[in-house]
Design a protein that fits this description.
The chain contains 6 helices and 12 strands. It is of the alpha+beta class. The chain has one domain (32-321). Strands 7, 8, 9, 10, 11 and 12 form a 6-stranded mixed β-sheet that branches. A hairpin with a 6-residue loop joins strand 5 (124-135) and strand 6 (142-151). Helix 2 (60-66) runs antiparallel to helix 3 (69-85). It is globular. The two termini are 32 Å apart.
Amino acid sequence: MNRRRVCLGAAAVALALPLAGCMTVHGERENIPSVGKAEAATVLAHFTEVNNQVGRSYDAKAVTAVESGALGTTDEAGLRAKHTNHPQGNPHYKPLVFSDSRYLIPRQVGWPKYFVVDTATNRGSTSRWLLVFRRAAAGAPWKASYVAAVATADMPKFAQDKDGYAVPLGLAGTDLLVQPGQLSAQYSTYLGGSGGSDVFAEGPSTSQLRSDRNAHAKNANSVTQYADQAASGGDFTPVALRTADGGALVFFASHHQSRATFRAGYRLSIDDDTRALMTGTPRTSVTLSHLADEAVTVPKAGGSGKVVFLSRVVGLVTVKGE
């Protein structure tokens, strides 16, 4: 996925009430839509504006104010590296344009609340982006926490309630093969080679990734060790929407670390963006910490289906030399 820095600011929408008296709806107690369609469209428009500003300036500070979770963490690190090496920004940046945008808005009780935008972009004609916007509390800004580029042919159909709203699922207690709140932990265990083959379908983000790791773990110049950890809680909390086939689309994140130890006398070659994020001096080893932003389909339990990755965006967030 050729992903640009993605960012979002708050959208303030004034509601004119024609009646002398009005009733306050408490979002922390009532099962209400997470956002109105007009406000969601305003959020996306502001998202586009700020995204394009950051694309030109490589302003890492600005992105931390308008993004959160996996998206915010990886974008902040990437922008910081780019700005270190290109303080003048990117004068050749091609503005991002969204079109044919659809809003998946669930009814929710309590906070945080979220909604998802399914949109076409000018970054490719064979895929659509899914953008997850989350709001921590009433009056708080909407922030983008997940992004996925999904092939148009693989985009699932989403379930709707009787009023046309998306159907959210909780982190536990669902009828799914894997509970949304357990996906990150189970995926980390799977990559470590100690289980999960009966849950995750084969593919580039699962069986092929494990095979590639095994193939590159040891060579004449280095030995590489891998460690994987779940990312959960706060802005890393998974987001799940029911799909029309009875399963779900789930967004989640995970941490991945690799430590390469090199033979004595080996001359390291480190690219500029990696070096910009590095602490310490790389004498004998380099530890890379990545954060992955993932979108998967999860079938209902009891059948033969498995968890299928639709998108996996990985960003380098820290580097340590020793």
